[in-house]
Write a structure and sequence with these properties.
The chain has a single domain, classed as YbaK protein, CATH 3.90.960. About 25% of the residues lie in helices and about 25% in strands. It contains five helices and ten strands, in the order H-E-H-E-E-E-H-E-H-E-E-E-H-E-E. The strands form two sheets. Strands 1, 2, 3, 5, 6, 7, 8 and 9 form an eight-stranded mixed β-sheet that branches. It has a two-stranded antiparallel sheet with strand order 4-10. A hairpin with a 6-residue loop joins strand 7 and strand 8. The longest helix has 9 residues. The radius of gyration is 14 Å and the shape is globular. The termini are far apart. About 40% of the residues are buried.
């Protein structure tokens, strides 16, 4: 697991600053409140297990990942599950509420939902539940080697 100091150093090498907060940023709503932005501008980093294999999806705070597009994009089959907290820590190196898209294990695929492109800057976690990192989608693509894909539907469109 990368420490906050390791993340700060890594991101500083890419001219990206880590913001820290006294208040918690563990949920999209809490992060938006701390940052002072809309929930949609929060880039939540989610771990899914698809047919027993872990994958990361980074999407906007107002979006929900859909199983079929995730399986199609990842090339995996089987049941799509949200893992338990211990699995999140084991697969990503970060605890739930602080999972960030940076310095993840090299064999963990990262997918970036197209919804992120709505904003010039989104705010991702920085490895703990009291931080945020302002980044562009281009920076996310570069630093995560993430693949852009349509994986989500708006929470307001959910029936």
């Amino acid at each position: 697991m990368a420490s906050l100091d390791q993340l700060k150093e890594y991101l500083a090498n890419h001219n990206i600053e880590v913001w820290e907060y006294a208040e918690p940023t563990a949920t999209a709503m809490a992060a938006a409140s701390a940052v002072g932005c809309r929930v949609a501008e929060i880039a939540k980093t989610l771990l899914f297990v698809v047919g027993g294999k872990p994958v990361i999806v980074v999407t906007c705070g107002d979006m929900k990942v859909k199983s079929s597009p995730l399986k199609q994009t990842s090339g995996l089959s089987g049941k799509v599950k949200l893992p338990q907290a211990d699995e999140v820590l084991r697969y990503t190196g970060y605890a739930p509420g602080g999972v960030c898209p940076f310095l993840l294990p090299a064999d963990l695929p990262v997918f970036l939902d197209l919804s992120l492109q709505r904003f010039p800057v989104v705010y991702a976690a920085a490895g703990n539940n009291h931080s945020a990192v302002p980044v562009s989608v281009a920076q996310l693509e570069q630093l995560t080697d993430g693949k852009l894909a349509a994986l989500c539907v708006s929470l307001s469109e959910e029936s």
